[in-house]
């Protein structure tokens, strides 16, 4: 099985790239987020690979970060989510934002992906909520990845307070984000903490 490819970008299209490794071109299917990190044929490329072997084909799926590959695999554990739908979801939500959407039950955000309706989004939220609370942060400097974070000082302080109470960062950030949407942009830290704790206790 192929788990990682390091080589040069040969060419790329809407949902694929060909990576030249020692003169052999590997066709790799990617999310648009991963493809956005590639721009010039000949540039060095390193991708984490998930290999799918079927009776009639072998497909390679590539990701700029191992956490994106982990979510690709997790998404496919949900009934109705295949490789193409998982890539579509990761094209509109990077792993931190996907984890936050699941933790905060934001089905609308997940439904933005092609092929994902409200019923399937609800199934994803229901089955992957525990995984969302265990998400691994992605370094802010990773190309093509936008790391979700609190939008204001009050939100940041509220997240820190919840972390100090023993909650995981992903859980705390998602709860505070939900509380902030309900309370408005001028909510005080104390109100966000109370609302966040209420959200986490559901």
Give a count of the beta strands, DSSP E runs of length 2 or more.
Answer: 5
The proportion of strand residues reads 15-25%
Cross-sheet strand order for the largest sheet: 1-2-3-5-4
Which class of secondary structure composition applies to the elements? alpha+beta
Distance between the termini: 42 Å
> Tell me about the biggest sheet?
5 strands, mixed, barrel
General shape: elongated
Overall mean confidence score, pLDDT: 83
Q: What's the number of helices? A: 9
Which sequence of SSEs, written as H and E, runs from N to C? EEEHEEHHHHHHHH
Q: Helical residue percent?
A: 40-55%
Query: What gyration radius follows from the Cα positions, in whole Å?
Result: 19 Å
Uncertain runs: 139-151
Brief summary of the model shown:
The chain has 202 residues and is α+β, with helices and mostly antiparallel strands.
Give the topology.
Layout: E1 4-12, E2 16-21, E3 24-30, H1 32-35, E4 44-53, E5 58-63, H2 66-75, H3 83-92, H4 95-103, H5 107-110, H6 118-133, H7 153-164, H8 169-183, H9 189-200
Parallel strand pairs: 3-5
Antiparallel strand pairs: 1-2, 1-4, 2-3, 4-5
Helix pairs in contact: 2-3, 4-6, 4-8, 7-8, 7-9, 8-9
Explain what you see:
With 202 residues, the chain is α+β, with helices and mostly antiparallel strands. The protein is built from nine helices and five strands; from the N terminus they run E-E-E-H-E-E-H-H-H-H-H-H-H-H.
Features:
elongated; single chain; 9 helices; 202 residues; five-stranded mixed barrel; 5 strands; alpha+beta
